[in-house]
Every structure is written in structure tokens, then in C-alpha cells.
Amino acid sequence: MDLSKLRIDGARLRASLEEMAKIGATPGGGVQRLTLSDEDKRGRDQIVKWMKEIDLAVTIDEMGNIFGRRAGKNDSLPPVMSGSHADSQPKGGRFDGILGVMGALEVMRTLHDNKVRTERPLVIVDWTNEEGSRFAPAMVSSGVWAGALERDWVYARTDINGKKFGEELERIGYKGKVPAAKWPVHAYYEFHIEQGPMLERQKRTIGAPKGILCLHWYDVYLTGEANQVGPTPMEGRHDALCAAAEMILAVNTLPDRMHGNMVATVGEIQNKPNSRNIIPDGVHFTVDIRSWDDEHALKAWELLKTDFHEIAARRGTPIRIDETWRCPHAPFAEPLVRRVLDTAGELGYSSLHMVSGAGHDASYMNQVCPTAMIFVPSIGGRSHVEVENTSWSDCEAGANVLLHCLLKTADER
Ligand SMILES: [Zn+2]
């Protein structure tokens, strides 16, 4: 058959996404499938079942990463890999991550139905804990697989209730025996929603990011002095929450003070004892800094640390800082990015060469093999929220681009 005419089945892709959206569905129309939760397990069971239906050889490694392999004509050649993640944010959306897993599955189903054999093997992957919201940091399992993070360090990470990553992985039955260690991969494509407004604003269907910004994560702990709020005068207080408030605004103004090329956010805070009539004596908050330039982000952090120490000293609230995680910026392989753009054009879709502000497992895969991503528009640019949405026709378009990128790359000798 003429493979250039081959297309995925958009209705089947939609049905699979709708089926997955039932697992951990939230009343607001989103999904809550936190990593290593019962919902995550149910989602995984469904994915494995679907993989087996089309005769993929399923492997689960010791990080719980799920691989579904389809043999090639020349099966000893390194495979072409594609996938993303099935976990979600708390009250997250129905497309983030799962679109890339279902998109790759739909490509495999299409090849299966049409009895297409590629030269190289193809592998779908579902990476464990991409989000990092239950267990920080993010993208840990592609990180371990790529050799950038330590397995046992990740196993020991705890959630807000003190549960350990390794124990939860075991509890849901997805701690496999195969080592989580990279093997030769010819190329990696990740299909994902954009999670920003650029494609919609410019009325384009397919985005091809030239790479991903660096991600730097920090954790700040402040100690104050608790006391009854009524009898304690304002002067001489050591209010940890007030210190945090000043610090949070310092984070918010940091990009301006650094003349741009970065974003900085405090997204999570815990306040103790969190009572209206006790002066707060313990605060933890997170800092997230992203830039295309790692050095710029590090300079910004130095400036911010000076602010933090000054504020903590002035308010008498001792500070401890953990430099939790740094994932360097990832410039993708230009020939692969070009292939995404060219393939979009061949299929009649408009496209945009851009950057990714969001982190993805593709960051770590980029350290292992030539990597590229395929973006489709997020309606209103909204993501990590229940109203996250992408049109079904755009999902279909992106999966068709993925299909043809995979076909071309898997036939390279
Ligand atoms: Zn994602």
C-alpha cells in the first residue's frame, strides 16, 4: 500500500481518551490521576490491556515505566520510541500526558490494522511520575532511565503524608524487575498538548518546539515563633508567614529585575500551625525558575537567595533552603524538529517553530537520543486545570503527524 495515504482513526483516538478520562474523573470535568495512586494503577491496567490487544511485548521496569514494543523487520536495530505520561496534576486535565500515550497507541493500532512492518522496532512508553506534584521532582522516571537521577533517591522521596515513592510503586503492583537503565534508542518523539497560548494565537495546528526551557526547583523552610495573636504585640513578632509573603513577591518580580528571558513562580505553600489565632511558626514553599539560559536562571537564583536571607534576618525567621532539582535546558535535534514541521506541511496542517515552557520527559530523553516533540493547541492556553481542552480534530492532526514522523524515522537504516 501507499503508506503516505495512511491515516490514524480519529474516532478511535477520541474514544480511548474519553475512556481514560473516566479513570479519576473530577466533578469539574477534569482528571485526578496522581502518580502511584489507585487511579494511576487503574489507568496503567487499561493501557497494558490495550497494548496486549495489538500484540505489543509489554515490559515494566523497576521505576514502573511501561514499555510496549512492536517488532521491526530488522529487529536488532535500535527502536524508535514515542510516549508520554498517564499521571496527572491534582484536578488536572484530560489531555496532558495521556494524549501522547494514546496517540502513540493509536499509531500502533493503525500499523497493526494495516499490517505495516517498519524496518526498526517501535516502542510506546508511559513514564512514571512525570508531574512531580505528589512526589517532587518531576520527570523522575525518565530521569532515572536516562541515568540523570539515582533510583534509590527517587524511591525515598515522600509525599505530603509521608508515603514513600518506592513503597507506593510496590503497593500498586508496578515495581517491575527490569533495570531502569537506558538502552540504545534511534529517536524519541513526544506528542503533547502545548499547555500555552501560542498555537491558538497564531492559528496554527502543529507546534514543533526547538527545545525545552531549563527547570530549577527549590524548597524553602522558614521557622517563626508561635504565640497567641491577641495578647502578642506587633513589634518583636517572628511571623514566618509574613516573611514568606515578602519572599513570594520577590520571586514574582525576579524576572523583571533580571530583564526577562525567564519565569519564576511560587506554586505551593504549607503554613503551620495554620490557625487563625496563632502566629505562624513554620512555612514551607516552593520556587520554580525556568529559562532558555541555564546560567541566567542560576544568576537569578543567586539574587533571590540574597533577598531571602535579608528578609529572614530582618524578620527573625531562620531559613533553610533545599536546592531540590535542576534539569538543564534541552535543545532538540534539529533534523527531527525539521521533520515534524515538514510532515505537518505534507499532511496539510499549518505549523509553528517555537519553544516549550513546560517540562517533559523529552528533556531527559534528549540526553539519550535525538528527540523532538509534536504540540497541538490548548484551548485558551489553559493546562493543569480541569477545563484543559484540545479539539478532537487537533488531537487527530497531531497523531497523524506522529504516525508519519514515526514511519519515516523507523525506516532509516
Ligand atoms: Zn505532561
Provide keyphrases for this structure.
413 residues; 21% strand; single chain; six-stranded mixed beta sheet; alpha/beta; 12 helices; binds zinc ion; five-stranded antiparallel beta sheet
Describe this protein's structure:
The protein has 413 residues and is an alpha/beta fold. It has twelve helices and 14 strands. It has helices at residues 10-21, 38-53, 98-113, 140-145, 151-155, 165-171, 198-201, 240-257, 294-315, 334-346, 362-365, 392-410, and strands spanning 57-60, 66-70, 80-85, 122-127, 187-193, 206-212, 214-223, 263-265, 269-272, 282-291, 319-327, 330-331, 351-356, 371-376. Strands 1-2-4-3-5-14 form a six-stranded mixed sheet. The radius of gyration is 23 Å and the shape is elongated. 48% of the residues are buried. The site of zinc ion has 6 residues, from loops.
The helix content, as a percent range, equals 25-40%
Would you tell me the structural class of the helices and strands?
alpha/beta
Q: What's the SSE pattern?
A: HHEEEHEHHHEHEEHEEEHEEHEHEH
- Termini distance? 21 Å
Overall geometric form: elongated
Please work out how many helical segments DSSP would assign.
12
Please give the radius of gyration in angstroms: 23 Å
Proportion of beta-strand residues: 15-25%
Could you give the count of β-strands? 14
Largest sheet: 6 strands, mixed
- Biggest sheet, spatial arrangement of strands: 1-2-4-3-5-14
What binds here, in terms of ligands, is:
zinc ion
Give the mean pLDDT: 97
**Poorly predicted segments:** none
